[in-house]
Amino acid sequence: MTVDAQPVTELPDPADYGFTVVPEEEIPAELASLVERVRSLMDAAAHTEAPPEALAAAADAVAKAEELIQGGRRQLGAMVRYTYPDGSIEYGTITNGVSGPVNPLAPPLLLEKDGEGGIRGEVLLNGLYQGPPGLVHGGWLAALLDQALGTASSVAGMPGLTANLDVNYRDPTPLNVPLEISARVTGTERRKVFVSGEIRHGGKVTAEGTAIMVRLSLPE
Ligand SMILES: CCCCCCCC/C=C\CCCCCCCC(=O)SCCNC(=O)CCNC(=O)[C@H](O)C(C)(C)COP(=O)(O)OP(=O)(O)OC[C@H]1O[C@@H](n2cnc3c(N)ncnc32)[C@H](O)[C@@H]1OP(=O)(O)O
């Protein structure tokens, strides 16, 4: 396999292309805690068997909470800038559906460099991500792999879009247990970046994926 997709030493700064960029460390603690609270609320709402009066009162309280945060809405497409411990920079959309730090739908997922050129992270998926009884929905596993594979390409200096994603489900993935995710670049060819990754539970691979990311070609 050739190595035409040259890594860049510094990622393009989305601010140079008109995107709002929020440094991760500048996300207000109050927003982080609101997002965490909403995650917990979603889990509670999805599983509650409380009586109707309690449900009606809760819906009112939520409507009031929503009113409190109306006014001032972040631009769609706003980005977040992560600074890794080694000082390198990574970008993502701040409301990314799989890993956006301010998106309550996104399970808390922190991907870090694995020291060998790839990335790794841990995630715990609760009943909100259920497919078969007690098991993680396969679509969410594919989404997590997509994100990890895209991030692996990006931390290797080759950010791009997923052109192709292949997922194999090897073993059922349980809810409510820590899952380990890892991914790395395996080769390049022109603008194509080949990546592979796994999701493990207790050391055993439950899902694995490969993808072709096509490097962004940005206007000069
Ligand atoms: C300004 C901002 C700066 C940003 C800085 C960094 C940002 C952070 C970035 C990243 C980190 C986070 C990571 C996110 C993770 C999540 C990722 C997603 O969910 S992505 C959403 C889902 N994917 C799409 O929506 C793509 C839709 N498809 C397309 O837009 C196009 O098809 C695209 C770009 C993939 C390719 O189009 P073409 O016109 O640019 O290029 P062509 O010439 O068609 O293909 C290039 C090569 O790729 C092959 N190719 C294309 N599609 C293929 C396919 N489906 N399967 C196999 N090969 C394919 C072609 O055969 C060609 O290969 P040959 O060089 O000729 O050998």
UniProtKB/TrEMBL annotation:
**Record InterPro entries:** HotDog_dom_sf, THEM4/THEM5_acyl-CoA_thioest, Thioestr_dom
The record's top EC class is: hydrolase
Q: From the Swiss-Prot or TrEMBL record, state where the protein is found.
A: Cell projection, Ruffle membrane; Cytoplasm; Membrane
E.C. number, please? 3.1.2.2
Gene Ontology CC terms, in alphabetical order: cytoplasm; membrane
Q: Where are the transmembrane segments?
A: none
Family of this protein: Belongs to the THEM4/THEM5 thioesterase family.
What is this protein called in UniProt? Acyl-coenzyme A thioesterase THEM4
* Source organism of this protein record: Nocardiopsis composta
